[in-house]
Amino acid sequence: MSDVDIDPTPGTARKSPRLGVIGSCNVDLVVRCRDLPRPGETIIGEDLRRLPGGKGANQAAAASHLGADVSFIGCVGSDSDGDWLIESLRNHGVQDDLVKRALRPTGTAFIIVDDLGENEIVVTPGANEELIISDIDLLQFDVVLAQLEISGAIIEEAACRSNSFILNIAPATAVKQETLESCSVVIANELEANAVDLNSLGHCIVTLGAKGAVHYRYGREIARAQAPIVDAVDTVGAGDVFCAAYAIEFARGSSPEQALRFSVTAGALATLSNGAQGALPSQSEVQGRLARENSIKVKPRFHIQSRGELC
Ligand code: ADP
User: Fold this and answer.
1) Which of 11, 148, 150, 309 is 20 to 30 A from 172 via CA?
2) Which residues pair with 21 in a beta bridge?
3) How confident is the model over 50-62, as a mean pLDDT?
4) Whose CA is nearest to atom 8 of ligand 1?
């Protein structure tokens, strides 16, 4: 846990938490078509859209917009796609000096979406699989945030070498139990949460889509927040914004209730625009929405234990 001094009053200037986001960085190639192609079938789609993506980069960009001092730790190819993704991170205000370059091609996701919103996705991780973090001092960060689009070995190493490690277990992938237990906080959506034993986790946040999120402490609910009602346009990336927001609130030492309220509001605002790195909500937009909802009640500070004992 950071010892950043906190003023929980909404709208007051607070020191920016220092966040390291470890994860994937991909080019998303998106084509819309009427129906998904069957095996062997060739179909005609709409114009190709090329978007920056990867859950790691999405969360880093979101955290930067929400006011954190963010470094992205990932690996892209030594190709023009890699240049473009690094440029995109910079445009979001994310520091890129810890981004590695590899000889393998930049990770790419091929995404086909039909008129009903169903999709087929092929991800070629490429350079993401070349990420090495052994030379990076993770203790420089108040919080390190990671997801599961990178290798399990990197996740295990990061969990052991961080002050406070928050793991978003998305996309659903097996993680060693001892790694999960060594996290300061595990964040899962409802489906991903089915794969973990909540009773074994000191702090687990389960997101519930439009219903908000719940904080479990060894299986017991200790906080819950409803998401504000919004006219959601696109829920892709809402979970990434939620995780970024939660990592910031955790670093600030906010109460469980306050951290959840800020995060569900950030996640809800993220549904108002298309794409995972579209119009990402800012800290003041989230605080403004919270104030309008009249849902901020200043609570006594509550310190979450920084991490488990295992590493
Ligand atoms: P994921 O996108 O990872 O599956 P969820 O669907 O649980 O995660 O959404 C994460 C967060 O995004 C929620 O806790 C909520 O704050 C916000 N959110 C998602 N969908 C909606 C929605 N339809 N209305 C309001 N908020 C939403």
Assistant:
1) 309
2) 72, 145
3) 97
4) 239
For the stretch 208-251, pLDDT in tens is 999 999 999 999 999 999 999 999 988 889 999 999 999 999 99
Does residue 222 line the site of ligand 1, with CB under 6 A? no
What is the C-alpha to C-alpha distance for residues 55 and 109, in angstroms, rounded to an integer?
Answer: 11
Angle at 191 between CA 267 and CA 255, to 5 degrees: 45
Instruction: In whole angstroms, give the CA distance from residue 245 to residue 241.
Output: 6
Ligand 1 pocket residue status of 193, Cβ below 6 Å:
no
Q: Which residue has the tokens 């114009």?
A: 47
Active site residues: 240
Find the length of the chain: 311
Pocket test for ligand 1, best of 233, 235, 260 (most atoms within 8 A of CB): 235
Model pTM score: 0.90
Q: What is the CA radius of gyration of the chain?
A: 19
Distance 307 CA to ligand 1 centre (A): 26
Going by alpha carbons, the residue nearest to atom 16 of ligand 1 is: 264
Q: What's 18-38+45-292's CATH class?
A: alpha beta
